[in-house]
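Quick note —
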Amino acid sequence: MGYARNIKEKKLLKIASSRGGYFTAKEASRAGYSYRLQHYHRAKGHWQEVDRGIFRLTEHPVSSYDELIRWSLWSRNRAEFPQAVISHESALSLHELSDIIPSKIHLTVPINFSKKPDTICTIHKRILPKDDIEMKHGIFVTTPKRTLIDVAESSIRMDILEQAVYDASKEGLIRLSELENASLSPTAREKIKSVISHVRNIFIK
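Predicted structure written out below.
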């Protein structure tokens, strides 16, 4: 009995630890936790229910990415696959590019996505190529290059965009030439051109 319990705990811990202590009811079920056991752990406070069918191990250390993980799981389809990709200002924060503290959680979802999020979320609908997506902290996020392009196309402040481009280039996450040659709207291209000019001057100094 104790051996079986340890096996279940290890399976669930492996799943939860890969993404900040979060897991779904179906994942718990696959790990060996019956509905009765799930109810027991919720009642005892071992698991915190953060949304319908989404739980978090109560004793797992809190991270600054908790909300992003939660909304990634919220977006999952019937096959339990997350539909949302963390993007725009939220992706800047996840990649630690600039000192931005987003007031909203930005999610890019498929065009046919129909779930209605909380007002804390800003939804962007588009088809993202696989090359524009990567995994970080157990969740899908736009690549640094895609993220910089997205925020350049938005109303983000120029000083934040410049810091983000500088940080990404300094850390080797992008090459400035990649941004120069990217497909951009005329307005975004002017922003990127100005920012890159400043960033290159900084590197020269």
